[in-house]
Every structure is written in structure tokens, then in C-alpha cells.
Design a protein that fits this description.
This protein has helices spanning about 1-50, 100, 130-140, 170-205, 210-245, 250-275, 290-300, 300-305, 325-340, 400-410, and strands at about 105-110, 115-120, 145-150, 150-155, 165-170, 285-290, 310-315, 320-325, 350-355, 360-365, 410-420, 420-429. The chain is of the alpha+beta class and about 425 residues long. The strands form 3 sheets. A 5-stranded antiparallel sheet has the order 2-1-5-4-3, sandwiched between helices. It has a 5-stranded mixed sheet with strand order 7-9-10-12-11.
Length: about 425
């Protein structure tokens, strides 16, 4: 139990930190991508607003003058387009290095797709032969922002009614985004591993109070059980001697019944304490589980039917299972005993055993009063009773032992209510 508690603490703490780190990584990278794309859009808009050029600063003394004249290219009709002259400088995402560091080209074309002019002087990797591909992408996209290969582009209408597509090389920006993503994920993984290491190292100290409390509880149960066994045995022996002396008496029978009840409680506490040990007391070996379940269930038939509860068995024959046969029989006994105690008057009890995907599945179902008010999640807690007012019930230990047995077989047990019927399902893997 202590190891399970420690492992659960480690998992929860590590997953919590990992989730927070992952969320921060996602936020960081989304913000970085959005900021990078916004810068690209601003640069595209700046170039587009200035007729395909990057404007110079309004104050020439701020940066060196760039020897950059607009290309003297001719239109199809041989005339120079006065609209191709650069506009005066404007404010935007511009520094002294922007004209040197920005790689772009501009395509001017008619509505019918005819290329009028290609300004390629600001990029060396694109030739006249390459412009057809980019022109087709711009035409297919229409006006607005788009992407084509390693370029972001903006298509606008010029004042003379033509189309202008500005293609901005953004591979460096994208590499920067990917670099931030890779490093942030790496940092996320490293931090998660560091947290996992620290949690593993400090987990024992963190759960030490719980461990001490559990150990004290287990030690108390063990000591109390051993201390009670002797007086219980003495009382039982004394009752037998007294009965031999005075003959059968009703009050002797009642005392013997209470003694047997007390002995069963002590045995249950000892079993529960053994289940909590770090080393499982279960002895795993193959055995015919179908026969074991059927024999155990048949031993309850007389008690169940005597209480007005017909017992319906559906056991798949020939099933083999590797586990602790005694513990599995005890599991069947606990579930059937619970059903007999809490089944509604004159209602049947059904037990099924079938092959599961991994292992076997054992189910016990019965009708019960006030099934809607049962908290199925608490039924397996120690000393919990769904109906404390019923003195005929147990001590709230049996189902806890059943859970320990199921978990000891790498399985689980659950309870589900449907209408007035409650079904216990134990999966043994």
C-alpha cells in the first residue's frame, strides 16, 4: 500500500508539472509564431505601400544613404511607368539594417495573369524562369496574405489598376520559430525529468507522516488481533465445557454465535493487514478457476436459498487461471456473503464467471433496497457500510479485502447500480 501511495504521489506531481510546462510551451510558441507572422505581415505591408520598395528614413542623417535606384525596366509597351518610382519613407518595422537584411521580390501583373514586370534585384535565389510558379500562386490566391514555399506574400491592387504581389523570403524567420519550439520542448523535457528526479528523491519524506500513520495502524491491528485470539479461544473452549456440564442452553448458543462473529472479525483484520504488506502474501500458480468458483458458490446455495434468495450460477467451464486459489475462493465467498446479507427479500442472486480479454471476469449481482442511495465508490473503503442502521451486516471489511485480492491479481473490482440492482465486477488479470 505504501509503495502504491508513493507511486501515485510521484505520478500526480510529475504529470501536474509536465502539464503546466507543456501549457507554457504551447503559449510561448503560439505567441512567438504570432509575433513572427505579424512582423512578416508588417514588412509585406510596408513594401506594398511603397510600391515594392523598402523606404528610406525620413531623416537622412540617421542612417547612411543607400545607393538604390528603382529598376529601369520597361513595360510591354516600352514606356517607363511613373508609378514605379518609390514613395517617400514611412514609419514601419524598419531599422537601419532592414534594407540590407530583407530578401524579397515583386511581381506586377494584369488581371488576365500577364506578367508586366518582375523586380528581382533584392533576391538572388529567384530567376526570371522561377517567376511563373510564384505568379500562378498569387493569381490562385487572389488579394491578401498568403504563403508559397519559403515565402509569405501579399497581393494588392496598384493605383493604375494592376496587381502587385510582394514575396518576402521567410525561411530564416521560420527556422527561428522552429528553433524556439525545439529548445522549449527540450527545456520542457529536461525540467520534467528534473522534477521527476526531485519528487522521487523527496517523495519518501513527503509521505512520511502518512507512512508512519499507516504503519502504526497496521501494527495496532496486528497486535490487537493476536491479543484477541487467546481470550476468544478461551471463551469458546469455556462455552463448550459449560455446555457439556449444564447441557444445551439458548444463551450458550448466543454467546457462541457472538464468539464466532468476533473470531471472524479478527481473522478479517489479520487478512487485511497481510494484504497491506509490501510483499504480496499471494501464491500464484495455475488452477481450474471454473471448478473453484463453482464449488465455492455451491457452498452458499443452502444459506442463500434458506434466506429466500435463489442462487443462479453461470460459470464458463474449463477455465484455467494463474493466481492464488485460496484468495480467489475467498473473493467469491466475500461477494456472495455480501449479497446474502444485503439482498432484497425474496430476490435472486446471480453469479457469472467468464473469460475476459486478459484473465477472467467474476460478477455477482442482486437486488437491494435503496440502491439509488448507495455510493458505489465508497463501498470498498475500510469499515464503510452502506446502511449503518442494519446490525445484521458485517463490519465493512469484506469488500476492502476483496479489493486487495483483486489488486493482488493485477486486476480491479468495481460496483455499479442500475435501478434496484447492484453488480460487483472483479477483473482478475
Amino acid at each position: 500500500m505504501i509503495n502504491r501511495l508513493r507511486n501515485r504521489f510521484i505520478r500526480i506531481a510529475t504529470l501536474s508539472v509536465a502539464a503546466v510546462m507543456l501549457l507554457l510551451t504551447v503559449i510561448l510558441n503560439v505567441a512567438n509564431y504570432a509575433a513572427t507572422d505579424a512582423d512578416l505581415r508588417s514588412t509585406l505591408r510596408l513594401i506594398s505601400d511603397n510600391r515594392g520598395t523598402i523606404p528610406l528614413p525620413e531623416n537622412p542623417g540617421d542612417v547612411p544613404q543607400l545607393d538604390r535606384q528603382p529598376p529601369e525596366q520597361s513595360r510591354a509597351d516600352g514606356d517607363t511607368d511613373p508609378a514605379d518610382e518609390p514613395r517617400p519613407g514611412r514609419n514601419g518595422p524598419f531599422t537601419a539594417e532592414t534594407p540590407y537584411a530583407t530578401r524579397y521580390f515583386v511581381l506586377f501583373y494584369q488581371d488576365d495573369g500577364t506578367l508586366v514586370r518582375a523586380d528581382l534585384q533584392n533576391i538572388a535565389s529567384v530567376t526570371e524562369a522561377d517567376t511563373a510558379e510564384y505568379l500562378a500562386a498569387a493569381i490562385d490566391h487572389g488579394t491578401g496574405y498568403g504563403s508559397c514555399g519559403g515565402y509569405r506574400f501579399l497581393v494588392t491592387r496598384t493605383e493604375d489598376g494592376r496587381n502587385m504581389a510582394v514575396f518576402l523570403e521567410c525561411s530564416q524567420s521560420r527556422r527561428a520559430v522552429r528553433t524556439v519550439l525545439v529548445w522549449s520542448l527540450a527545456a520542457d523535457a529536461i525540467c520534467t525529468l528534473l522534477v521527476l528526479t526531485l519528487v522521487v528523491l523527496l517523495s519518501r519524506r513527503a509521505i512520511d507522516p502518512v507512512v508512519r500513520s499507516a504503519e502504526q495502524q497496521k501494527q495496532f491491528i496486528t497486535d490487537a488481533s493476536h491479543e484477541l485470539k487467546t481470550p476468544i479461544t478461551v471463551i469458546a473452549t469455556s462455552l463448550r465445557v459449560l455446555e457439556m456440564d449444564v447441557g444445551p442452553q439458548t444463551w450458550i448458543d448466543k454467546a457462541r454465535a457472538q464468539t464466532e462473529k468476533l473470531k471472524a472479525l479478527v481473522d478479517s483484520l489479520v487478512t487485511l493487514s497481510r494484504m497491506d504488506e509490501e510483499q504480496s502474501p499471494l501464491h500464484m500458480e495455475p488452477f481450474p478457476v471454473s471448478d473453484a468458483v463453482a464449488e465455492t458458490a455451491e457452498s452458499f446455495r443452502e444459506v442463500a436459498e434458506g434466506g429466500g434468495h435463489p442462487l443462479a450460477l453461470s460459470v464458463t467451464p474449463g477455465l484455467m487461471y494463474t493466481g492464488d486459489e485460496y484468495a480467489v475462493r475467498q473473493l467469491v465467498s466475500i461477494l456472495l456473503d455480501n449479497a446474502v446479507k444485503y439482498a432484497a427479500p425474496d430476490s435472486p442472486i446471480a453469479l457469472t464467471l467468464e473469460k475476459a480479454r486478459r484473465g477472467v471476469a467474476l460478477r455477482v449481482s442482486n437486488r437491494c433496497e435503496n440502491a439509488e442511495g448507495i455510493d458505489a465508490d465508497k463501498l470498498f473503503d475500510r469499515f464503510y457500510r452502506a446502511d449503518p442502521a442494519r446490525t445484521a451486516g458485517g463490519f465493512g471489511i469484506g469488500l476492502s479485502i476483496a479489493r486487495s485480492i483483486a489488486e493482488g491479481h493485477r486486476g480491479a473490482i468495481s460496483a455499479r447500480t442500475e435501478g434496484d440492482t447492484i453488480t460487483f465486477t472483479a477483473l482478475l488479470k
